[in-house]
Design goal:
This protein is of the alpha/beta class. It is built from twelve helices and eight strands. The protein has an eight-stranded mixed β-sheet, sandwiched between helices.
Length: 271
């Protein structure tokens, strides 16, 4: 039986997507194949999700209609060239989640035009809350893009985006968990200095921030209005905003976003 999706690489993102696919009921484990140089990782996926492990990457490609390349960006070109012949023979749908690797770079590794879909997910896929950007080459049809969306929607949401905006998306959404982690950690650390337990402070801050984010996006109101409303009150919230603004909060975040975009562009230019 030819499986629907194969995963080449079984790291955090691959595991998160597999988990979403199977737990959502959109795919069964029998429809998924995996290959990893580390056989124990592939077997762990088999035990956890009921997927089929393959002994070689060639076997994975031959037995799967689409292959998700979940390998490090510097490894991807090597793997693509190694599998070029078999992918061309099988007319494989290539789905890449490699950061900073443009579609043209993938195409340059192939001897003929194949369908290529590029996805930029983030680590929130681990809890089925990822926001993933998606684009494709002109060989990929609407059904190919919709199929990729079906996979990644099982671990969150997808948004179609022009590829030239992927670096900005990476900074604003793909790397957003990093902003959240360090911000929550700073709140917890400050709470500890004021007598709280860090674990409790972190749990409360995380829960409140998550719930508040849900409120923001469920209401027909913009975030600038909400900030202005809080600033107009004589409250602890107003004091938080005032202190952060006076200590260069916006400038620090803007600088971090700019550096993230620069990093992603540098990764592309190295290809």
């Amino acid at each position: 039986m030819k499986r629907t999706v194969g995963f080449l690489g079984t790291g955090n993102i691959a595991n998160a997507i597999m988990d979403g696919m199977v737990s959502s009921g959109l795919f069964s484990g029998k429809e998924i194949g995996v290959y990893d140089l580390d056989k124990t990782k592939a077997l762990k996926c088999s035990d956890g999700y009921g997927v089929t492990p393959f002994d070689t990457s060639d076997e994975l490609v031959k037995n799967c209609s689409a292959v998700i390349f979940a390998v490090k960006p510097n490894i991807l070109p090597i793997v693509l060239r190694e599998l070029d012949k078999v992918m061309c023979e099988e007319n494989t749908l290539i789905i890449s989640v490699a950061a900073g690797t443009e579609i043209k770079t993938i195409e340059e590794c192939l001897s003929q035009k194949l369908r290529v879909v590029r996805i930029m997910p983030n680590i929130n896929a681990k809890v089925s809350e990822a926001i993933s950007a998606i684009c494709a080459n002109d060989a990929a049809g609407e059904e190919d893009i919709a199929f990729a969306e079906r996979i990644f929607n099982s671990a969150g949401k997808t948004v179609r985006l022009e590829e030239n905006l992927f670096s900005e998306f990476c900074a604003a959404a793909g790397s957003a968990p990093a902003f959240a982690y360090i911000f929550l950690d700073s709140i917890a650390r400050a709470a500890v200095k004021n007598g709280a337990y860090k674990s409790e402070a972190l749990k409360m801050a995380s829960e409140l921030m998550f719930r508040k984010a849900e409120v923001i996006f469920s209401e027909d109101d913009d975030i600038e209005k909400k900030i202005a409303q809080i600033k107009s009150e004589n409250s602890t919230g107003a004091k938080i905003i005032e202190t952060l603004e006076n200590n260069g909060f916006y400038e620090a975040v803007e600088n971090a976003v700019n550096k993230t975009v620069e990093k992603d562009i540098k990764m592309k230019n190295k290809k």
